[in-house]
């Protein structure tokens, strides 16, 4: 009997450290955000975030594969300054009336050991699609005490040239060409 309990304890301990298994995940909105940073007159950094995103993720840490499809409501952009938000939503920038969504679809997951290290994909803004790479600055899976399911997520960063998406307003005068993207994603296993 003692041997059975010891074996059971060992199996439980091993199970606690085994990696996540292949599964489908849905992004959790309170822990998922898309942010961008861009220089302003070379003096400072303007930051904005999108407050409404939704996504689906397929993740298999054993096979070291994954897929992401993230859709962002472009009209949910927020800088904390309503007139600036209005400018960003307007025709000179995101033109949210004509292009209401921004989309990221992954093409490949890269791993460093057992952890996701980068995700390659296609970013669509204003009906223009170009490849981007988002590097993981952190990544983990955990058993959530709140939702009683596995949650996987991380922080991903990359740089883009905004002119590729036809966003040329204020180029080299007001704002720079290079834009830093920061995506924080947590997704719940279904």
UniProtKB/TrEMBL annotation:
Q: Which InterPro entries match?
A: Lipid/polyisoprenoid-bd_YceI, TTHA0802/YceI-like_sf
Q: Provide this UniProt record's keywords sorted from A to Z.
A: Signal
Q: Which domain of life is it from?
A: Bacteria
Parts of the chain that traverse the membrane: none
Check the UniProt entry and state the signal peptide residues, or none.
Answer: 1-22
Q: Where is the Lipid/polyisoprenoid-binding YceI-like domain?
A: 24-188
In terms of PANTHER family, this protein maps to: PERIPLASMIC PROTEIN (PTHR34406:SF2), PROTEIN YCEI (PTHR34406)
Protein name, entry field: Polyisoprenoid-binding protein YceI
Q: Which organism is it from?
A: Ottowia thiooxydans
């Amino acid at each position: 009997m003692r041997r059975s309990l010891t074996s059971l304890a060992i199996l439980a301990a091993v199970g606690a450290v085994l990696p996540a298994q292949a599964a489908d995940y849905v992004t959790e909105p309170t822990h998922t955000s898309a942010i961008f940073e861009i220089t302003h007159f070379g003096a400072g950094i303007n930051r904005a975030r999108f407050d409404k995103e939704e996504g689906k993720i397929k993740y298999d840490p054993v096979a070291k594969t994954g897929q992401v499809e993230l859709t962002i409501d472009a009209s949910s952009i927020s800088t904390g300054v309503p007139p600036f938000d209005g400018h960003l939503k307007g025709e000179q920038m995101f033109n949210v009336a004509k292009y209401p969504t921004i989309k990221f679809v992954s093409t490949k997951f890269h791993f460093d050991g057992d952890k996701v290290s980068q995700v390659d994909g296609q970013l669509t803004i204003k009906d223009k699609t170009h490849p981007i790479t988002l590097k993981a600055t952190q990544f983990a899976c955990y058993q959530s005490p709140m939702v009683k399911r596995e949650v996987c997520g991380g922080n991903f960063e990359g740089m883009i040239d905004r002119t590729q998406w036809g966003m040329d307003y204020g180029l080299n005068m007001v704002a720079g060409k290079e834009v830093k993207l920061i995506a924080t994603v947590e997704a719940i296993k279904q």
